[in-house]
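ok new one. same drill as before - structure tokens go in, u give me an amino acid for every spot. 336 of them this time. try not to just spam alanines like last time pls lmao
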């Protein structure tokens, strides 16, 4: 291996290295999950509230919906379910909540977003995403047809950018597949595959337990890292020879992983197709942004030909594989 590494190899090494350096700050893959608040009108100024918060090592975050002073809670049920803290309770108010403001106490003190879904008796539905200092909203007076689409699109976009395992797989494809036509074919196959299983799992046509799926996704990244190493020694693997077939196969798994994340949030009951399509479009936009950003950096550095030490590229690959192996072991232990 005496030839100087190409700009693509070093660029992918840099991006992968940055992901690994930032990982302790951002947490494990899929740990940045939103909370979910659903408000369903059941009668004259009475509502059923579903409040879900992601569970972490210290329990659910200290967040709670705050209703107007003339509202009081009638009954409640709270329990842990599927990595989230689930609360369901009834609320009765002196008057309708339409046109009135609700807020999420504690939202500004966390990095967690809150997806809000409102279902009123007159058919009005409202979907929005609260984050940071924007911790309040006004319950809709009239239908907002773009609310569901914009909220779930933003959710899908954030999920792919913060889901390091999905992102690292795409970057691994960029590393192995050099010809742009073959790369486009591989990414297209990956997109078609995860869109298919995301739809089937979200519509409950198929059901696969989440923890095993997440473990196999991590294992697929370990295999991808091994193929990168073999490729550097002149022994290309299956991904290099049939990138679209491998990308499609692994994409089926990643779609199930996306569906698991979406199930933790929930889907609006009467807007499931729109929410599902919007979430998937958001995932694709995030994926495209990642690929385009790396491609632009590659184009910018193509003539610079940085003279970087060879060990930097090897270190990034081995760190990439080691982190993925840790994920695989950690996720396997969660269900064994």
């Amino acid at each position: 291996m005496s030839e100087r590494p190409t700009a693509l190899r070093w660029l992918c090494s840099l991006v992968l290295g940055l992901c690994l350096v930032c990982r302790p700050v951002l947490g494990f893959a899929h740990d940045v999950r939103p909370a979910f608040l659903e408000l369903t009108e059941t009668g004259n100024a009475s509502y059923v509230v579903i409040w879900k918060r992601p569970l972490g090592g210290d329990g659910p975050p200290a967040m709670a919906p705050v209703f107007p002073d003339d509202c009081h809670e009638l009954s409640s049920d709270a329990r842990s379910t599927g990595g989230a803290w689930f609360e369901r309770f009834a609320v009765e108010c002196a008057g309708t909540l339409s046109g009135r403001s609700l807020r999420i106490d504690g939202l500004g003190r966390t990095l967690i977003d809150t997806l809000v879904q409102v279902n009123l008796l007159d058919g009005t539905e409202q979907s929005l995403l609260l984050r940071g200092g924007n911790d309040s909203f006004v319950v809709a007076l009239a239908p907002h047809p773009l609310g569901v689409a914009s909220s779930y699109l933003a959710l899908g976009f954030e999920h792919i950018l913060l889901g390091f395992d999905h992102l690292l797989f795409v970057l691994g494809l960029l590393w192995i597949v050099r010809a742009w036509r073959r790369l486009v074919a591989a990414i297209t196959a990956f997109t078609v595959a995860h869109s298919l299983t995301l739809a089937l799992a979200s519509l409950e046509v198929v059901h696969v337990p989440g923890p095993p799926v997440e473990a196999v996704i991590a294992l697929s990244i370990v295999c991808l890292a091994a193929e990168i190493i073999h490729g550097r020694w002149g022994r290309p693997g299956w991904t290099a020879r049939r990138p679209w077939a491998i990308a499609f196969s692994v994409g089926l798994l990643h779609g199930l992983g996306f569906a698991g994340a979406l199930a933790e949030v929930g889907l609006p009951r009467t807007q499931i197709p729109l929410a599902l399509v919007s979430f998937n479009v958001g995932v694709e936009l995030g994926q495209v942004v990642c690929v385009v950003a790396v491609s632009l950096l590659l184009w910018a550095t193509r003539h610079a030909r940085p003279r970087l030490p060879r060990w930097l590229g090897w270190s990034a690959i081995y760190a990439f594989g080691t982190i993925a192996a840790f994920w695989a072991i950690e996720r396997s232990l969660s269900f064994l």
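The longest strand covers residues 71-81. and btw Residues 272-301 form the longest helix (30 residues).
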